[in-house]
Amino acid sequence: MEKDKTIEVLNTLITINNDRIEGYDTASKETEEQDLKTMFAHLSSTSQKCNQELSAEVTKLGGTPAEGTKTTGKFFRVWMDVKAALTGKDRKTILNSCEFGEDMAKGTYAKVLKDDLENLSAEQQIMIKAQHTLLVGDHNVVKAMRDSLITQ
Q1: Of 79, 90, 133, 143, whose CB neighbour count within 10 A is largest?
Q2: pLDDT at residue number 33
């Protein structure tokens, strides 16, 4: 297991969580709907918790935790779609965009769990699997809220 590669993998997860935090904090400021504000706060909180754990691991390995976001390309467009949907008060579009962002976060974790296990200790794997489970749960909350609009 190469320490630099482990730090890189953990920082990839920190960055995706930074994206979620920034996106949901922005979305929360843009909406006036209390249920969405509550949900966005919960989703942001999940990533803050994940980042605390990931940052502690990076620091323990002698690395520097990632501080920025990766709001380029698709992820940037997701948050711009959320912002535009919030401005237009279109709940379905808001929730569709949030679900797409959640899919990207889940996918990043799934890729690490598939491709980078050799770079992670058993404890780190357990932590990342637990975080992935939290993100899947968050995704399902967003999806259920979105799907409830379809049946109305």
Answers
A1: 79
A2: 84
The helix (run of H) or strand (run of E) holding residue 1 is none
Q: 3-state class of 62 per DSSP?
A: coil
Instruction: Give the global pTM.
Output: 0.87
For 5-43, give one letter per residue: b (16+ CB within 10 A) or e. Answer: ebbebbbbbbbbbbbbbbbbbbbbebbeeeebbebbeeb
Mean pLDDT of the chain: 86
Write b or e for each residue in 123-147: b if 16 or more Cβ atoms lie within 10 A of its Cβ, otherwise e: ebeebbeebbeebeebbebbbebbe
What is the distance of C-alpha 30 from the center of its chain? 19
Question: What contacts 141, CB < 8 A, 6 or more positions away?
Answer: 39, 42, 43
Amino acid, single-letter form, for residue 63: G
From CA 3, how far away is CA 58, in angstroms rounded? 9
What does the pLDDT average to over 28-55? 91
Radius of gyration of the chain (CA): 16
Give pLDDT tens digits for 68-107. Answer: 776 554 564 566 566 666 666 677 777 877 888 888 899 9
